[in-house]
Amino acid sequence: MGKYARAAGNEAKAAKARGSDLRVHFKNSREAGKALKGLTLNKAKVYMQAVIDHKRCVPFLRYNGGVGRTGQAKNEGNSIGQGRWPKKSAEFLLGLLNNAESNAEGKGLDTDALVVSHIQVNKAQKGRRRTYRAHGRINAFMSSPCHIELILEEKDSAIKAEAEAGQGRKLSKKELAKKLRSGTTSKSS
């Protein structure tokens, strides 16, 4: 197993998947991967299938030079409206999500509670080809493959939120000093 860029919060409640030297465009995969982060596993799979079917688009936020505008991108959170439907990237990401789901089932995790906590797309070594031009010239014809890794983690229950809600509001330094001078021992109101 290869090294991941980030360790899971709890290895026992996490499932991983990675693909190396994938023949799919780096820039498209990076944008599609960014759109998946934070989604539940089921929502991510439905989203990628919708991208393949051209029902929803992937908003292009960084590599957006020359990318056309579509109303679907505004619905996905891009105020400018630039977006595309990177079918091949979506197929590869869907395959990785299915792989991670299988790994989670092998570990005995609840697949309905899994969330995409980490996804990273790195550039791989470029494939070098050549194209023949006029007057006997030759130009490079490069491909831009990528490495993709993702981590799914089980979402924690709302127990932490209830525990924090019982503490009350956080006091400023001035309010804490005033309480301590008055002799009150409790830090919260």
SSE diagram, text form:
Blueprint: E1 14-22, H1 26-36, H2 41-52, E2 58-59, H3 71-75, E3 83-84, H4 87-107, E4 114-123, E5 127-132, E6 138-143, E7 146-154, H5 159-165, H6 173-182
Antiparallel strand pairs: 1-7, 2-3, 4-7, 5-6
Helix pairs in contact: 2-4
How much β-strand is present in the residues? 15-25%
Distance between the terminal alpha carbons, to the nearest Å? 50 Å
Strand order of the largest sheet: 1-7-4
Main sheet attributes: strand count, strand direction, barrel closure: 3 strands, antiparallel
Q: Please count the helical segments.
A: 6
Number of domains: 2
In the CATH hierarchy, the architecture of the largest domain is Alpha-Beta Complex
Mean pLDDT comes to 90
Helix content: 25-40%
InterPro entries: Ribosomal_uL22, Ribosomal_uL22_CS, Ribosomal_uL22_euk/arc, Ribosomal_uL22_sf
Pfam family, one: Ribosomal_L22
Organism: Chlorella vulgaris (Green alga)
Family: Belongs to the universal ribosomal protein uL22 family.
